[in-house]
Specification:
about 210 residues; alpha/beta; seven-stranded mixed β-sheet; 8 helices; about 35% helix; globular
Length: about 210
């Protein structure tokens, strides 16, 4: 198995199928990135730590249940949704982005990996009529604005350890942004879970809805 999967295996117990699927991500994204720039060119070599493992930071905070519905807003090329969908094969993931080319990549990667639990769709979060257990995203905008897009898209009944809500990947100093949000939240430092330098200031922000 390619050494690239080692950062994932260091922190997660994977089945053979998951190890294979994570292993295929590198070549799939490299090939697609030649055609459509979904990951910055200089960052593609750091795919497994900066994108895949970063996405899986959410899995250190929340274990999604079978049958749960998770929405990934502004997914770009499929982060955090695709890595989470590999890790939680019985959870349903709906990945949306306003840019059609990026959703083309999402659906092609999901198809290549035979991820039956992923649906990619070109649309804005505000247009969605469905409700979800959790809404995930990776720093698409300020939290206050993001909250405005999605706060009415969450199921009333919670079946997980945390109440339904937002799990948001964000880095840096969040003090001002969280003060502006004016909602209860919890912060999880990814440096508590992952030892790589990349995670030093990275966090998962949980906002119950």
């Amino acid at each position: 198995m390619s050494a690239s999967v080692e950062p994932i295996q260091k922190y997660f117990s994977l089945t053979d199928k998951q190890t294979r699927q994570f292993g295929e991500l590198g070549s799939l994204y490299k090939a697609w990135n030649e055609k459509i720039n979904v990951i910055s060119r200089k960052d593609i070599d750091n795919l497994y730590v900066n994108h895949v493992l970063h996405s899986l930071g959410i899995a250190k905070v929340m274990t999604f249940r079978p049958g749960a519905d998770v929405l990934d807003v502004g997914t770009g090329g499929g982060f955090p949704g695709i890595p989470l969908a590999i890790l939680f094969p019985e959870t349903n993931f709906h990945l949306v982005d306003s840019i059609g080319k990026k959703i083309t990549v999402v659906n092609a990667v999901a198809e290549a990996l035979r991820l039956r639990n992923v649906r990619g769709e070109q649309m804005r979060a505000e247009q969605l009529k469905t409700e979800y257990d959790f809404i995930v995203s990776r720093a698409v905008t300020r939290l206050k604005e993001f909250y405005g897009w999605v706060h009415n898209k969450v199921k009333k009944e919670s079946v997980h350890d945390l109440d339904n809500g937002i799990l948001y990947l964000k880095g840096g100093d969040l003090e001002e942004e969280l003060a502006e949000l004016k909602k209860p939240y919890a912060l999880y430092n990814l440096s508590d879970y992952f030892k790589e330098d990349f995670f030093e200031t990275k966090k998962v922000v949980y906002v119950p809805l």
